[in-house]
Automatic annotation (TrEMBL):
CDD domains: NAT_SF. Residues 115-258 form the N-acetyltransferase domain. Pfam families: Acetyltransf_1. This is N-acetyltransferase domain-containing protein. Signal peptide: none annotated. SUPFAM superfamilies: Acyl-CoA N-acyltransferases (Nat). It comes from the Bacteria.
Length: 258
């Protein structure tokens, strides 16, 4: 395998894949606490290792399974066992079948957008919230989306956007977290349970998506396949769905023989 030190070379090898661009945050040679990337099989395979990206150490994979499998094995040996694979669902499932040391963690969705927003999309009433609103944001996220990785105070999670009802209560929130210069990640989308069905999620998502596209040019988010309401909302804003899967490295004594 060969380590990639140049961000533009990485994007060329992976065809500009947005997930690779997102994972390659601050790509530097032999850096500590920053992303690293490798290629193998004559440029057919790409693996990007990003520590503590959306809470986990991520290993974003790209390419055909037969080329990616040996590269994954070599990168895990160098980067360490804490990294979780993330990539196209068919690819990750194939890697789990090929490498007995891997286990499937979850199937999920990746949605992305390069803009612009669909014509006629209303601006809504959302805005960036001051830092003093973080305790209120934390309570809303805990009530509306307790499983969210993005919460106030989590590393990589900074400014929150929100929409308030006429009585001043916070109704819905979202943030841009763990974003790369050329790829924003929308996270922490949550609505207060008793305020659902009033268009607040659409307002805040429209706002943060518009901000993401303006600042970064491209935007993405992770979504559960079972969340049909969220999938419908994101698609209505012009976001495109791609099936995704995650996998993790089994402890050495638990990998089944194959």
């Amino acid at each position: 395998m060969r380590e990639i030190h140049d961000h533009e070379e990485l994007l060329a090898l992976c065809g500009g894949d947005l997930r690779c661009a997102w994972a390659a945050q601050g790509l530097r040679p032999h850096s500590t606490g920053r992303s690293r990337a490798w290629t193998g099989a004559g440029g057919r395979a790409v693996v990007v290792a990003a520590p503590q990206l959306s809470v986990h150490d991520r290993l974003v994979v790209h390419g055909p399974a037969d080329a990616v499998a040996p590269l994954v094995r070599a990168v895990l040996a160098e980067a360490g066992p804490t990294y979780r694979l993330l990539g196209d669902r068919a690819l990750v499932h194939a890697l789990v079948d090929m490498l007995p040391e891997l286990a499937l963690a979850a199937d999920l969705g990746w949605m992305e957008d390069t803009g612009p927003l669909p014509a006629g999309t209303p601006a809504g009433k959302a805005e960036w919230l001051p830092g003093s609103a973080e305790p209120e944001v934390a309570r809303l996220v805990e009530a509306g989306f307790p499983a969210s990785y993005a919460k106030p105070g989590v590393p990589g999670v900074r400014t929150w956007a929100g929409v308030r009802e006429p009585d001043g209560r916070l109704a819905a929130v979202a943030t841009l977290a763990w974003s790369a210069p050329a790829a924003a990640l929308i996270s922490g989308v949550a609505t207060r349970p008793d305020a659902r069905g009033r268009g607040h999620a659409r307002d805040v998502c429209t706002f943060v998506l518009s901000e993401a596209l303006s600042r970064h040019g491209r935007a993405a988010l992770l979504v559960d396949d079972s969340n049909t309401a969220a999938l419908r909302l994101y698609r209505s804003l012009g976001m495109r769905y791609r099936p995704l899967a995650a996998a993790y490295l089994l402890p050495p004594d638990s990998a089944p023989p194959r």
